[in-house]
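Deliverable D4.2, example record:
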Amino acid sequence: MPQPLIEKIDSFVAAAINLQLRQTGRLPLTIYDPEWPSECHQQPSEPGQQTPWKPVLQSQSDNSCHDMLDRLEQALGYSIHEDLRLWYSRYWSDPLPATSEWGELSLLFLWSEKDCERLRGNLIGHLLTKQKQKQPATLFFACTEPDGEKFLSINNQTGEIWLEQPGKQPIMKLADSLEAFLEKLTPKPIPDMEQ
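Output generated by the structure prediction step:
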């Protein structure tokens, strides 16, 4: 596995949680939904109630994300960039907010095993659109805030990070790699999910 990228992801996630604890004195809160359980929940809760959560490393024995990406590769007929495989198979987490020289961002993660199939469907839809438009294959991992109208993606051939808008040509190259991109981000406090 690409160790420098693992270190960058781990460092960003740790910085996000540390910032949260420094600024609020507690973990962020999310609404407990028994239909979407996650290892991120830090204590049992009643449905519809707020519960503390934090990003959790996916265990080595949990292959659900790798299996989902393997099935995605089979459906597409080509390999998925290793950086994206690592990104989605490192942590279970809700989106994490960040700021950069390009504005506010929301970094996307998988909440649980159940989330893997939803992501696979979204990535297939995105890649089929790219194919239809005869554009290079890209795979999204973040979106812009507050509107979410643009997204950030990894070019599947080069590993470069691009800013994109759905259905259009990529707008601007942001970094040569996911590792280089993460160096340019600053975490923001994680907002609570309201009841």
